[in-house]
Amino acid sequence: MLSCARQQFLEKGVIPIIKGKVYEFIKESYTGGSTEMYKPAPPKGTKIHCYDVNGLYPSRMKTWEMPVGVIRQFEGDITILDKDKDKYYWIGDAQVSTKKDLYQPYLQIPFKIGNGFRTVAPNGLFRMKINSPEYHNALKDYNIQVRSGFLFDKKNIFFDYISSMYELRSRYPKNHPMNLIAKLLQNSLYGRFALNPILERHIFCSFDDFKLLSEKYDIVDKMDLGELGKFVSFNDPSLGQDSNGVQTKSSISIASAITAYARVKMSKYKNNPLFNLYYTDTDSIFIDRPLPDHMIGERLGQMKLEYIFEDCVFLGPKIYAGITTDGKYICKIKGFKGAKSISLGDMKSLLVKDSSLKLKHNKWFRNLAEGNILIEEQVYELSRTENKREFIYNVSGSSCH
User: Fold this and answer.
1) In what order do the strands lie in the sheet with 218-224?
2) CA-CA distance, 13 to 69, in Å (whole number)?
3) Please, how many CA atoms are within 13 Å of residue 268, restricted to the half-sphere of its CB?
4) What contacts 327, CB < 8 A, 6 or more positions away?
5) How many distinct helices (H) and strands (E) make up the chain?
6) What pLDDT digit, counting tens, does each position of 333-355 carry?
7) Do residues 201 and 239 make contact, with C-beta atoms less than 8 angstroms apart?
8) For labelling alongside 147, which of 211, 266, 273, 369 has CA 20 to 30 A away?
9) Residue 235 burial by Cβ neighbours in a 10 Å radius (0-12, 13-18, 19+)
10) By three-state DSSP, how is residue 123 classified?
């Protein structure tokens, strides 16, 4: 995909190849979209409008300038470049604090929890790797001191590519394969730029072979298979090269910039006095009144009305349900199959403190030692999610917000 786009649409020698310590630094700024629940349930009789952005990432790629050219490392006060902010793009290590507690903070960081990470948007004082457009957008709400980072020139490089894919889509109806192919090409290219230059290899091996591997490679994970040996995952730098030993061409600064521009756009709907924002996903918002007509349309970057909830509840990221004005029931429960079987009344019952629902669904389990897949019925305990925001309850134990 990237080689096709590069050959037909992209100027040679412009996109920087990112690897090593620069890759690891910039990777921390590549945090994707934001999914948040702010208000669990609207007052009775309130209609909630769900809007999606038409091609959020492609619209940012088509419109905005990307970090390109020679990579320069910098240290010290980045504000000396403010007069040239239309010329340079940078990604920096920053000390950040909110000027006041924000109801809907929008600068986000990866936060380590247990064995994994969760993306959160905190209040207070924190460190982050920040893109320059997010920096300039956030100065009204945050104190930001940039300490060091990497500086690029910037240039619009995707206008022709996105325009071509969008024009190709417009030739075919939505149910036509070519429409889907063009949509996939325009929406998935940005992620290709974030490809890790060092990829993982996964092999079965004996204990002796494992010892040799651990001396030569960085072991990512291992699974003991008893007499069968071990199943090992390890970083293999050769997988980041083609058959001629040439390094795989990827540029995480491009991917980070595209997602940063997208977050800047979506931040305009947060802390907005014109409406109450109940829930947001990467490219969608749920608000209690219609947007102005000039924001709605079919062009890239404009909003489209998906549906209007007559009655609904939001219990956490990727967990919500509602009945639309045309009588359709929509229920989303991350990780649970058959969400529509859970009624709106059952979903609303979870607004009561310490409540939960025990559900059952089938899950697939791989058994590498025996070489089979097992399907087992599992209990799924559903409750509101407070891993990003804490619910506040009234005296009766029902959630207020």
Assistant:
1) 199-205, 230-236, 218-224
2) 8
3) 11
4) none
5) 9, 18
6) 988 888 889 999 999 999 988 88
7) yes
8) 266
9) middle
10) coil
